[in-house]
Design brief:
By secondary structure, this protein is mainly beta. The chain contains 7 helices and 30 strands. A hairpin with a 7-residue loop joins strand 4 and strand 5. The longest helix is centred in the N-terminal third of the chain and has 11 residues. The radius of gyration is 28 Å and the shape is elongated.
């Protein structure tokens, strides 16, 4: 088995079984002293309620979710005041969500699936709860939070975490992965400048959950320059975790840590079953799953077999072909709305485009964004020389936001006019008026940043959708045919791409749907939620309702 791999089943007597429960003791020794813990991990299905923040706690109903439960109890750690207990619920099990199940780490790797629905944790009298409705498709509902995540997780020392990491990520396991451990052997292995020497001796069997596993005693030593270490383990080749191990581990010759692990209990199941676990928020056992992968298959179907204009991803700097005719995009109009945690639901219309004009006797293009928000109107105009037009029409002019446009490249002048304000700046540095004109609110700025290149729906996330590829670190997408829409007096067939993943290679949960028409270089509609456990959540929605096209001569 691949070391620490909890995603694939283990084989026992020709049958496939999943490890659904494990208990072991773990000791780590560093320059800060020796600490030891009992670690319990369990996974399976539960039924739990999802909540949102709607000026208070709003119950959205009960859902069946996949659960990762853990309890880390200090046996010898003067800095911990009691056990750390946590529960992570996700929409569906994935390879990413299983990453840390067998390791001492809390299972926050489950967040990398992009479908985290609930995180709950308790330690030292402190409690944290976070519920993310977008994980179950309720994109317009914002996350509900109780407590402070950092306070709950602050009980485990940095040295302990580093010791865990040094052991789990050690290349000592890589040298064992593809080797036959069922017979005596002595051999060497090298990895990125570190040399390992192994001795293998078969040593009978061990029994877990009524099933017998052959084991071997393995000893090793390693060297990286002048840094050396050694260790040993009792390994069942059929299991992805050592039955017991101890030794000195180092991350590429860095600080070394002594670690010791010993399994006390391990349970196997042909299926993922409903489990009875809860901390404070009630849950009940969910329905038994199957022994096959529960990860939803990612669709590889691209929208349509005709036009590829949708893959231009906001780029309308060149004419586009629709029904054998060539058009230049001159203007787009979006209906949009957004909500930020703690704020109200805001709706707006935004019209963006460009035209030729003169400024100070010179030929220029005026790029505009006319925004109506909360009954107030704002006009944003950016003047650029003809050579700079493509820098805007290739993307930032068309997104339903203003930040990237007014902060774009190579402008000659920027003018912003609001209900009671005016601001302008030119390329000579001449400034007039109120610099805050057009800022509108902090929530509006958050909305703008969600669209901003390269992390949002202009670049990053939408870029992944356009590539018809899995979102970074996440589940990816599914594609389904949609209904027809009429824009610019023409009817277009659409496709709905539902996606989930993480944004900015962090724990920010990104969930939503993008509707595309293959002939159009912009999405027809985007509905999305971004949420960081313990941080703010934001819902954004934009729908293309009109577009002005000019036929090329």
């Amino acid at each position: 088995m691949t070391p620490w791999d909890a995603y694939n089943p283990v084989q026992v007597g020709g049958q496939s079984y999943y490890i659904t429960y494990i208990k072991y003791t773990f000791t780590v020794k560093s320059s800060e002293g020796e600490r030891s813990y009992e670690v319990i991990k369990q996974r399976g299905y539960v039924k739990a309620h999802i909540y949102s923040d709607d000026n208070g706690k709003k119950d959205l109903g009960e859902y069946t979710l996949f659960a990762y439960y853990g309890k880390i109890t200090p046996l010898n750690d003067p800095d911990m005041s009691g056990p750390l207990e946590y529960l992570i619920l996700i929409k569906e099990r994935t390879r990413d969500s299983d990453t840390y199940f067998l390791t001492p780490f809390p299972d926050f790797g489950a967040m990398m699936s992009g479908t985290t629905a609930v995180i709950e944790a308790s330690y030292g009298g402190n409690y944290f709860y976070w519920s993310n409705p977008a994980a179950v498709g309720e994109y317009s509902e914002l996350p509900y939070t109780e407590g402070d995540f950092g306070t709950v997780m602050g009980g485990i020392s940095g040295a302990t975490i580093q010791g865990w990491m040094a052991m789990v990520s050690s290349a000592v396991w890589t040298g064992l992965e593809d080797h036959d451990l069922s017979k005596p052997d002595e051999y060497s292995f090298s990895f990125m400048g570190m040399g390992y020497s192994y001795k293998v001796e078969p040593d009978g069997t061990v029994t877990f959950d009524g099933k017998s596993f052959k084991v071997s005693d393995v000893e090793w030593s390693w060297a990286f320059g002048n840094v050396r270490g050694q260790g040993k383990a009792k390994i069942a080749p059929a299991l992805p975790i050592p039955v017991e191990t101890e030794g000195t581990f180092s991350q590429m010759g860095g600080e070394s840590y002594y670690s010791k692990l010993k399994i006390k209990d391990l349970r196997l199941s042909r299926e993922f079953e409903g489990i009875d676990v809860e901390i404070e928020s009630p849950t009940s056992p969910g329905e038994t799953g199957t022994s096959t992968e529960t990860q939803t298959e990612t669709s590889t179907e691209a929208p349509g077999e005709g036009s590829d204009n949708w893959k231009l991803a906001w780029d309308a700097s060149e004419p586009i072909t629709i029904n054998s005719e060539e058009y230049v995009v001159k203007e787009v109009t979006f209906e949009a709305d957004y909500r930020v945690s703690g704020g109200s639901h805001v709706r707006m219309n935004i019209k963006k485009g460009y035209y030729e004009t003169t400024l100070n006797g010179e030929d220029v293009y005026a790029l505009y964004a006319f925004l109506n928000i909360g009954g107030e109107s704002y006009n944003y105009v950016v003047y650029v020389e003809p050579d700079s037009l493509d820098e805007y029409t290739s993307g930032i002019l068309w997104i339903p936001a203003v930040y990237d446009m007014v902060n774009g490249p190579e402008w000659v002048k920027v003018e912003i006019t609001g209900p009671n304000c005016h601001y302008s700046i030119d390329d000579s540095g001449n400034i007039e008026g109120d610099m805050d004109c057009g800022m509108i609110s902090e929530d509006f700025q958050q909305y703008n940043m969600i669209w901003s290149y390269p992390t949002g729906f202009y670049g990053g996330i939408y870029g992944d959708v356009v590539e018809v590829n899995s979102l970074t670190g996440g589940q990816g997408y599914t594609v389904k045919p949609g209904g027809p829409v009429t824009i610019a007096g023409m009817e277009f067939e659409t496709y709905t791409i539902t996606w989930n993943g993480i944004a900015q290679n962090s724990g920010i949960q990104a969930n939503g749907g993008t509707i595309v028409a293959p002939e159009l270089p912009f999405p027809v509609e985007v509905t999305a939620s971004l949420a960081m456990p313990g941080g703010i959540g934001i819902y954004v929605h934009a729908k293309l309702i009109d577009m002005k096209l000019e036929e090329t001569s």
